[in-house]
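>> received
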Amino acid sequence: MTSVLQNVAIDCADAYELARFWSAVTGCPVHPDARPGDHETQVMLSDGPVLYFNQVPEPKTVKNRLHLCLRPTTSREKEVERLLGLGASFVADRRQPGGAGWAVLADPEGNEFCVLRSASERAAMNGAGSVTAMGSAEEGEGEGESVVGGRSVGRPDHGGLADVGSLPTAEFAFPGPLRDRLVAAILDRAKTSTTGLVVDYEHEGEALPAVGDRSVVVNSDERPVAVIEVTGVRVIPLADVDLAHVVDEGEGHTSVAEWREDHERFWHSEEMRAALRDPGFTVDDTTPAVLERFRLVADLRPDHLRPDRP
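>> returned
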């Protein structure tokens, strides 16, 4: 005996308004009896389960553990532009230079969802593989990774390690306990984002990171321990940092305020001010921040330099 998936239920603060958004996304109608102010509303999909919106008093606080993945009938890029125009917000860029990957957006109430390639875009690329049961991973994308709750998971790729010596170094914080914690979180794949300051890049004369850039993570002993690859970059004022990015930093912060306090302690430290050669350096809401997302490509620790077994 089996069950049929009838509804996909979405908790929200305004059931009718969120249903209108998803009606515009899918091109399917809101239930004809729905009215503004209704606590329960449905979008009647032409094929598959009903999208059921349920008004609740609790606000959304963390990333969804379950999300929707959209396959557009037009191109992925045009669909992302259309959805942003409908009121969605851009969360993370998982698109790859060769055309694979996906974009992570959020609806007006912050519920994350993915925009995949269209069927024609996927067919135009070689090396297509199989789709996961939830359709959350694109064929041949992310080197075997899939999206679960907005994070990419999967085995790191140990290929291409012969080129490690030519890659730039990625230093997280200063040598010591903080760097050790951050590096450990990267190796555990708990940390998939980080935040820098534009002023730091300018002081060092370095270009901002770009999608596809790879670098070697070093520990407090300056020994290489991992290779990471940039999957998304945003430059925004500190005031606009969102909770999804904060959580993906993997440092245990549960609110933007807590994250901000902890990071200001670092940015206002004597070490940071000395590195910038500015003894009075401070940040505020307008300070440009570089929000970087990355994935673990290879674990360079000696006992991990071997192919993963299935």
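>> The chain has eight helices and 14 strands.
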